[in-house]
UniProtKB/TrEMBL annotation:
Protein origin, superkingdom: Bacteria
Organism: Flavobacterium humi
Ranges of residues in domain NodB homology: 64-241
Pfam families in the record: Polysacc_deac_1 (PF01522)
Cross-referenced PROSITE patterns: NODB (PS51677)
Keywords: Membrane, Transmembrane, Transmembrane helix
Protein known as: Polysaccharide deacetylase family protein
Keyword Ribosomal protein: no
GO molecular function: hydrolase activity, acting on carbon-nitrogen (but not peptide) bonds
Any Gene Ontology biological process: carbohydrate metabolic process
Annotated TM spans: 7-39
Lineage: Bacteria, Pseudomonadati, Bacteroidota, Flavobacteriia, Flavobacteriales
Amino acid sequence: MLRHKNIIVICLILLVLFCILKAAWWVFLLLFIGFAALVSWGSFDIRQNYFLKAYSSNPDRKERKIALTFDDGPHQMTEKVLDLLQQYNAKATFFCIGTQIEKYPNIMQRIVGEGHVVGNHTYSHSKSFGFFPSAKVKEEIRKNDDLLFEFTHKKIKFFRPPFGVTNPNVAKAIAATKHTVIGWNVRSLDTLIQNEDAILKRIKNKAKPGSIVLLHDTSLKTVRVLEQLLLFLQSEKYDMVAIDKLLNLPAYED
């Protein structure tokens, strides 16, 4: 854990100091609220590297390269996404859910067959993921790794936690599984924003060389946004690459 331990030490020092100074009760309350706010922020903002190291962009990348990533597939809409990527000669990274792989093995095979990179997004993508003990997190990751191995014949290195949530249990699990955690620095909010123009504008305003864009290959809305986004990136002379090419990190292990 990169920052959490430091915050705990600082808060403990302040707590002892306030006790010595016999500070008012509201000072202790403010300390507690501040600590809780920092932990919550670190848990839900993967870019902060609060509990573990996550690669959310490549700020050193000077060439006009950008990585498009898609979460929560494979899905029926994934085929339309693949058609567009093929049309624009773009490569992407798909963070796949195990239960979805079981539903759409043919689409999973197409993702791999067309040269895109796949990553682990847990087996079930449970809404309770943030409350799982480390043993359960490891089980979710390893079970999905086994499914992905059937298509790649290699050990998956890239992992993205559901909802981007991290905590000490996730950090402990990742230390055991040795995955490389991938975040993002451009969040499209395509699962929350209904207006397609607003989604596209949000991405265009935030995208720059070395960016990692978070999208979801699960709706026609995102497909329509993607078509306009690819046209824009092509006009801006961007090379749309998979995560391994953007970060110069291996996607798989033999």
